[in-house]
Write a structure and sequence with these properties.
By secondary structure, the chain is of the alpha/beta class. The chain has one domain: Rossmann fold (3-Layer(aba) Sandwich). Helices cover 32% and strands 29% of the residues. The strands form 2 sheets. Strands 3-2-1-4-5-10-9 form a 7-stranded mixed beta sheet, sandwiched between helices. The chain has a 3-stranded antiparallel beta sheet with strand order 6-7-8, with no helix packed on it. The N and C termini lie far apart (39 Å).
């Protein structure tokens, strides 16, 4: 199976539309005074571009150099200015309290539970006081639907060899309470499991967890 660099190079991934749950939250996020945004795991830029067009100053971070190179070309062709950084989400290259909003959509599943926790710690660290965080992630219910006979559970909620395009990679599927536990003291604006189409799985509807909170 391909890795994420190869997956994002595919034309269908380059054409992915922004997540509608996040777009629906943008007016309230903007009204709250959020201006400086971190797109944590920006990929092909499907959220970075609408954020810039809405007037936010945006940093996009991804660990795949090829993905960022393609995104830079896309930004240049569209005449859009944004900041891009090559980095692992577990070691973000920013000072504490740098951003008003951190958004991460379908990214923090990738790795073991300790990797998921490191991503969350870093997103919490770089979020400013009164900042907001928006996470959209495949939860534990998703994991049960993508098991195959050859699927291996490496630890609770952490699977490999699953029925997804990147199923050869290790995924951790957090329970909702795992996510909430990473952001103690936050005020929940939305915390809900929904059924939503998965773009890279031919639009089949699967459980997805929306976590939107204010520090």
């Amino acid at each position: 199976m391909p890795d994420w660099g190869e997956i994002f190079a595919a034309p269908e991934m380059q054409r992915l539309q922004p997540n509608p749950e996040f777009l629906a939250a943008l007016p309230e996020i903007k009204a709250a005074g959020c201006r400086l945004v971190l797109d944590a795991g920006c990929g092909a830029g499907r959220h970075l571009l609408p954020l810039v067009r809405e007037g936010f100053e945006v940093w996009g971070v991804d660990r795949e150099a090829g993905v960022l190179a393609r995104l830079q070309e896309k930004l240049r062709a569209a005449g859009i200015r944004a900041h891009l950084a090559l980095a692992d989400l577990g070691r973000l290259p920013f000072p504490a309290a740098s951003f008003d909003l951190v958004v991460s959509i379908n990214v923090i599943n990738h790795g073991y539970a300790r990797t998921f926790e490191a991503y969350c710690r870093e997103m919490d660290r770089v979020l400013s006081p009164q900042g907001q965080i928006f996470i959209y992630v495949s939860p534990r219910e998703f994991a049960e639907l993508v098991r195959r006979p050859e699927t291996r559970e490496l630890e609770p909620g952490t699977l490999v060899d699953i029925a997804t395009p990147d199923g050869n990679l290790i995924h951790h599927f957090p329970a909702p309470e795992e996510i909430t536990a990473q952001f103690p003291g936050y005020r929940l604006l939305r915390a809900e499991t929904i059924a939503a189409p998965i773009p890279f799985m031919n639009g089949v509807e699967m459980p997805q967890y929306v976590f939107w909170a204010c520090r």
